[in-house]
Design goal:
single chain, 518 residues, alpha/beta, 11-stranded mixed β-sheet, 6-stranded mixed β-sheet, 17 strands
């Protein structure tokens, strides 16, 4: 190991202690190794973290690092209490990494006269090269599946949510036990085949929350994909892998599913475009179901034009575009968002040439958001148990705690309330659809920015409850909804959602695109 002969006293000991803490994942020691200040920085290939608290939260959710040793250390003193350290690491499992750190000697809080300690003020980490990120991808190729024809999507790549049939691959549904038993598919699901026929290639199979029955993006089996817009926050699920792949630029189109918001939520959290199509407009053959009454095909992209291209490749345009309908803000949904998001949305809407009006959904006969959410919850639960209950019963312990508890709660729902929710679903859907005749709703996609990766289970469940109160209107109504990356709240993205009448998918994307240009 090569070191600078003028390394300040105590610096190399501090470096050794930091490396030891990394290998044992000693979170307290790692927190103490960084300068406790709001401008402390740490960066890697997933993004930049600023502030000791943000770095600590990231580290707590990351887990330990692979076993490694330092093979070279270079030290350059910059001032009496400041030094630059560049070190090369060799991983036991193969590969090298590089760490560049700015160390500062700071008081350690001991009585006056005690020696100061060296701590990291800024760090940039270059890890060993990875064939692919296993938190994002289940399988990748170059390509994994080639296009079946040439067309408007030539040169584009697809991240396919691990619920769709892809030739030569089993469907894993985010669960390793299910994956081991799943047969290898021979044909692509029609929604996937349409993109292949338009010239796109499949880059890989993207991770999903187990059986798509979650909204956070966390997966206890495979880890949590990074949020491409803010590494301190969760990516959003259940189309988390598809969203992250698009956000990181490793795919151009993420094909996902949206049952209760699983395209719209990650789109909002990661600053992407996301479209939930009209229920039933895109065939769901070859798609592992969760709740067929609500399951829809959807896409995530980095721009509106690519989203339109995916839609055009899958649903052929028919006739002329409908005349634009007035944009209106549903007061009940805006009341559900946090104050900063409400302020940002209000400022945005007032900046438009034609400021949207306000309506009350109740005046149109639409049930309250909480009632729609409950109807969605009960019907979704019943259909999820029907679809996967037998497999779950035959494989005790195969599910993660969070999703296992959700299926258990679903099976324990009141059968009378569930039967009533199922029986009345069509009538409520008709009511919601009638309310959208002649108008387009516009409101924040979700209550606020993505939750922090450090959020506990109780906080995440509260977020899920608030979020589904907002997403349930389109889900229960079987309506198209697009989330466009328009707002910024607390330096994080929040989408603006447009919801329209059935079949207005293309018009919604175009209108949202025009709003972003203004």
């Amino acid at each position: 190991m090569t070191t600078h002969p003028d390394a300040p006293e105590g610096l190399l000991d501090a470096l050794d202690a930091y490396e030891a803490a990394l290998l044992t994942n000693d979170l307290d020691a790692l927190d103490d190794a960084f300068v406790d200040a709001p401008d402390t920085m740490r960066g890697d290939d997933r993004g930049l973290l600023v502030g000791h608290d943000a770095i600590s939260a990231f580290r707590g959710a990351r887990g330990g690092v692979a076993n490694r040793t330092l093979t070279r250390v270079e030290v350059r003193p910059l001032a009496e209490d400041l030094a630059l350290v560049v070190s090369v690491s060799r991983f036991t499992g193969g590969g090298h990494g590089l760490q560049t750190q700015l160390w500062r000697r700071t008081p350690d809080g001991a009585p006056t006269g005690a020696a100061a300690r060296w701590r990291i003020e800024s760090a940039h980490v270059t890890g060993r090269p990875r064939a692919f990120d296993p938190t994002v991808w289940r399988a990748v190729g170059d390509p994994l599946v080639a296009p079946s024809a040439s067309g408007p999507l030539d040169g584009r790549t697809i991240a396919v949510k691990d619920l769709y049939a892809v030739p030569g691959q089993p469907v894993g549904a985010g669960n390793p036990t299910f994956l081991r038993e799943a047969p290898v598919e021979t044909e692509a699901a029609p929604a996937v085949a349409a993109l292949l026929a338009a010239g796109a290639a499949i880059r890989g199979i993207a991770r999903t929350d187990e059986f798509a029955y979650n909204l956070t993006g966390r997966n206890e089996h495979h880890g949590t994909p990074p949020n491409a817009a803010d590494p301190t926050r969760l990516p959003g699920g259940s189309s988390s892998g598809s969203a992250t792949a698009v956000g990181l630029g490793t795919a151009d189109i993420g094909i996902g599913t949206d049952t209760a918001g699983s395209v719209r939520v990650p789109a909002s959290y990661q600053g992407l475009w996301g479209l939930r199509t009209t229920h039933g407009r895109v065939p769901r053959d070859g798609l592992l179901p969760l709740a067929p009454s609500f399951d829809t095909v959807g896409w995530l992209t980095r721009d509106a034009e690519t989203l339109l291209a995916a839609l055009d490749a899958t649903v052929l345009p028919t006739g002329t575009a409908p005349a634009p309908t007035p944009l209106v803000v549903p007061g009940e949904l805006l009341a559900l968002v946090d104050p900063d998001t409400a302020a940002a949305f209000t400022a945005f809407s007032r900046s438009l040439d034609d400021e949207p009006g306000r309506i009350r959904l109740a005046d149109l006969g639409v049930p309250a958001p909480e009632e729609l959410r409950e109807r969605l919850r009960l019907v979704q639960a019943a259909e999820a148990v029907t679809a996967h209950g037998p497999w779950i019963a035959a494989h005790p312990g195969a599910l993660s705690t969070v999703v296992g508890d959700r299926f258990a709660a679903a099976a324990a729902n009141d059968p009378v309330a569930t039967a009533d929710a199922v029986r009345r679903l069509d009538d409520v859907r008709d009511t919601v659809r009638s309310a959208l005749t002649g108008r387009t709703l516009v409101f924040p996609t979700v209550p606020g920015p993505a939750p922090l990766v450090s959020a506990d289970a109780a906080a995440l469940e509260r977020t899920r409850t608030a979020t589904t109160a907002m997403t349930s209107l389109a889900s229960v109504g079987g309506l198209p909804a697009v989330s466009a990356p328009i707002l910024t709240v607390d330096d994080a993205p929040v989408g603006v959602c447009l919801v329209g009448a059935p079949g207005t998918d293309r018009d919604l994307v175009r209108r949202a695109r025009d709003l972003t240009k203004r």
